[in-house]
Amino acid sequence: MDYLKAFIVGGVICALVQILMDNTKLMPGRIMVLLVVTGSILGALGIYQPFAEWAGAGATVPLLGFGNTLWKGVWKSMGEDGFLGIFKGGFTASAVGISGALIFGYLGSILFKPKMKS
């Protein structure tokens, strides 16, 4: 049942983003920023964590989850390092995910030898 719930929640998030892309003139980069900021704001308001616990990977994998991760890192680091934590916390919290994406992207490029479009 958890898989079904995650699939449905992730699908609804993606469908809402697709509707936003189809019905507005917002560019995909701006929509991505909007999702990250929305995840951060929902995390700051205390709404995102209970939602993520209920929805599982359907809520934590999309960019909303990345925004929430950044917020949690900043909040924790502000408590430990004060004002400097605003700048340091997001990097610390998301370093593993970003490093993994870079490493696996590089390994994928070695294995599959991508070519430029003609």
UniProtKB/TrEMBL annotation:
The chain crosses the membrane at residues 6-24, 31-48, 54-71, 91-112. Keywords: Membrane, Transmembrane, Transmembrane helix. It comes from the Bacteria. This is SpoVA protein. The keyword Nucleotidyltransferase does not apply. Coiled coil: none annotated.
